[in-house]
Design a protein that fits this description.
Layout lengths: L2 H13 L2 H8 L3 H15 L4 E4 L2 E4 L1 H27 L4 E7 L1 H18 L3 E7 L2 H9 L5 E4 L8 E15 L12 H5 L4 E3 L5 H8 L9 E3 L5 H6 L5 E4 L4 H5 L4 E3 L8 E9 L3 H7 L3
Parallel strand pairs: 3-4, 3-5, 7-8
Antiparallel strand pairs: 1-2, 5-11, 6-9, 6-10, 6-11
């Protein structure tokens, strides 16, 4: 199971078309076909099913994709670390969810980078589950997420707390005196499909099961722009949009018949990781 076949599989799973995959990877279409066939022979499973205009992952393909992404990330992480080791004595690998990074982690990483000239710093932004898996796979040294990792050998420290606020642009805010839960369900809600831990479960609980949102995005840092354009309502961490709120570009809408929980973020690292402990000592 070679790395080029893994990369080809991942690209095809995204593009869902053999021709476009071949063009993107600068290889012949027959090469893509052969690489996928080799993977299917090695796994003993059909990974793709043909459909009109392309292909889609089978159930077995969906399962294999999660492993393929991890294998590819491990290989790339190893290459980065080897190259970095040739030039720098140490490398700090920090992983964070976008909301925590935008809400205060940037300044901490920036200061550490400036003060430690002998340490290479690599920052990656993932979703919480991917972060914690990357930490367990030793792809990153420390993770900043909304969920702790309750596993032997790992340390969890409370990093920060924040308010979760419902926001809208002033020009569309129809609830200046506050909003009830049933009114929120009827709004144009911009759903950010990411986990806030308990807060994330709270947001989903405000809507009926399998509620169909007309707009969804998986990066919390991109929601504010849509809010500023007056396209709808959404919950976001207060610190992420503090400037826009103070400038009056976004307004906080008060809940009338429900209580909004606070957001707690954690920094998680493997016990005994001296570099992670050195970095976290600056917090």
């Amino acid at each position: 199971m070679n790395s080029e076949s893994i990369k080809t599989f991942i690209m095809l799973s995204r593009l869902k078309n053999f021709t476009r995959t071949a063009e993107r990877m600068y290889v012949a279409q027959s090469t893509v076909t052969n690489r996928i066939a080799e993977l299917e022979n090695e796994t003993g499973q059909k990974l793709f099913a043909r459909k009109q205009g392309g292909v889609e992952l089978t159930q077995e393909g969906e399962l294999f994709l999660s492993y393929a992404l991890r294998i590819n990330e491990l290989e790339e992480s190893f290459i980065r670390e080897v190259n970095s080791a040739a030039r720098y004595e140490r490398q700090l690998r920090v992983g964070a969810i976008n909301a925590v990074y935008e809400s205060g982690l940037y300044s901490i990483v920036s200061s550490f980078f400036k003060e430690h000239k002998d340490i290479a710093v690599n920052v990656v932004l993932y979703h919480t589950i991917d972060l914690l898996q990357a930490l367990q796979d030793s792809i990153i040294d420390v993770a900043f997420s909304y969920l702790p990792l309750k596993k032997t050998g790992f340390c969890n420290r409370r990093f920060s707390t924040d308010k979760l606020v419902l926001l809208a642009a002033p020009q569309i805010n129809a609830f200046p005196k506050g909003i009830r839960k049933d009114e929120l369900v009827g709004c144009e809600y911009l759903m950010c499909n990411f986990a806030f831990g308990e807060a994330g479960e709270f947001v989903r609980s405000l809507f009926p099961p399998r509620h169909a949102f007309r707009f969804e995005i998986d990066n919390s840092g991109k929601v504010a722009r849509y809010l500023l354009d007056g396209l709808g309502y959404s919950f976001l961490p207060y610190k992420m949009v503090e400037k826009e709120i103070e400038e009056g570009k976004l307004q906080i809408i008060r809940p009338l018949d429900f209580t909004v929980p606070e957001i707690v973020s954690y920094c998680v690292y493997r016990r005994g990781n001296a570099l992670a402990e050195q970095f976290l000592s600056t917090l």
